[in-house]
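Objective 1b. Sequence-to-structure analysis of F-BAR domain-containing protein.
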Amino acid sequence: MTSPAKFKKDKEIIAEYDTQVKEIRAQLTEQMKCLDQQCELRVQLLQDLQDFFRKKAEIEMDYSRNLEKLAERFLAKTRSTKDQQFKKDQNVLSPVNCWNLLLNQVKRESRDHTTLSDIYLNNIIPRFVQVSEDSGRLFKKSKEVGQQLQDDLMKVLNELYSVMKTYHMYNADSISAQSKLKEAEKQEEKQIGKSVKQEDRQTPRSPDSTSNVRIEEKHVRRSSVKKIEKMKEKRQAKYTENKLKAIKARNEYLLALEATNASVFKYYIHDLSDLIDQCCDLGYHASLNRALRTFLSAELNLEQSKHEGLDAIENAVENLDATSDKQRLMEMYNNVFCPPMKFEFQPHMGDMASQLCAQQPVQSELVQRCQQLQSRLSTLKIENEEVKKTMEATLQTIQDIVTVEDFDVSDCFQYSNSMESVKSTVSETFMSKPSIAKRRANQQETEQFYFTKMKEYLEGRNLITKLQAKHDLLQKTLGESQRTDCSLAR
C-alpha cells in the first residue's frame, strides 16, 4: 500500500512565504545601506582629494618662493659692478649665456609653480567641492527613487500574500463542502438500502388494520428519503458554488504569482542597475573626470619631462567608468544584489492544478480580461514611451552639462617672447561667479525635471511589467485551451 501524500498545511505555507519575504526585505535594507556606504566613501574620497590639493598648493607655493629666492640671490651678483663688467666682457660666451638662461628658467619655474598653486586653490578644489555637493544632493533624490521602488515591490509581495490567503480560504471551503456532500450521499444510500430491506421483509399477510400501519411506516420512510435528497441537493449546490470560488481564487493567485515574479526580476535586474547608473552615479564620473583632467593639463604643461609619471594618473582618469564601477560594486556585494529565487506555486490541500483554468464557466471571463489587459497595455506603453523619450532627452541635456570639455588650462602657461609673467588668471569660462550661478541653476532645474520623469517612467514600467505578465499568462492559457477544444472537436 502506498502512503497517502503529505500536503503542506496553511501555517507551513504562510511560514515559508513569510521567511522568503523577510529575506527580501532584509536584502532591500542592505541595498540601501550599501548605497549609503558608497555615498559616504565617495564624499570622503572627494574630501581627501580637496585636502590633498590644498596641501599640494601650499607646497607648490613654498617651492615657488624658494626658487624665487634662489634666482634673486644669483641675479643680485650680476647686478654688482664687478659682475656687470664681467658680463660685458663675456657677453658672447656661451657659458655666460647658458648661465643667464638657467637663471631665467628658474624664475620661469617659480612663476609656473605659483600658477600651479593658484589653479589648485581656485579651480581644482572648487570642482571637487561642487562634485561633493552634487553627489550628496543627487544621492538624496536617488534614495527617494530607490525607496519608492522598494515600497512598490513590497506592495506587490503583500498583494500576493493577500491573494494567496484568499485562495487558501476558498479552497478550504470547497474541500469542506465536498466532504459534507459525500456524507449526504452516504446517508442517502444507507436510507435507501434500509427501506428496500424492510419492504422485502414485510409482505401483506395480516388483516387490514395491520396493513394500514405498514403503509404509514412506508410513507414515513419515503418522507425521510426525500429529506435526505433535499439535503443532498443543497449540499451539491453549496459545493458547486464553493468549487467555482476556489477556481477563481486559484486563478487570481496564479496571476498575482506571475506578476510578482516579474516585478521582483525587473527590480533586481533592471531597476537596481538603472538606479545606480542613471541616479546615484549621474554626472559623478564625468565631473570627477573633468576635475582630474584639469590637474593633468596643469601638470603636463608645467613640465613635459614628468610625462612618464603622469601617464599612470592619466591612465587612471581614462579608466573612469561608471559601468565598470557599478559592476565591481555589484560583484563585491553579490549576496545583496543577486535576484532571489522565484516564488513557486504552493498547492493547497492536494490542489495540484498549477495552471490557469480556462474552461467554462471562467473562460469567457478570462477572455474579456485578456482583451482588457491588451487594451490597457497598449495605452500604457504609448504613454510610457513618450515619458521615456522626454526623460532621455533631459538626461542627454544633463550629460551635456557635466561633460563639457572645460578642463584645458594650457592658456595659463602661455609665454610671450619677452619672457614676461605667465598668465595666472584662472579659467573665467568655468569659475566666474555669474557663469557658475547660471549653470548651477540650470543644472539643478534640469535635474529636478529629470527625476520627476524618471519616477514617472519607472512607475509606468512597473505597472506594465505586472500587467504584461498577467496578459501573457492569460494569452498562453487561452491559446492552449483553444487548441485543446479544436482537437476535441476534430
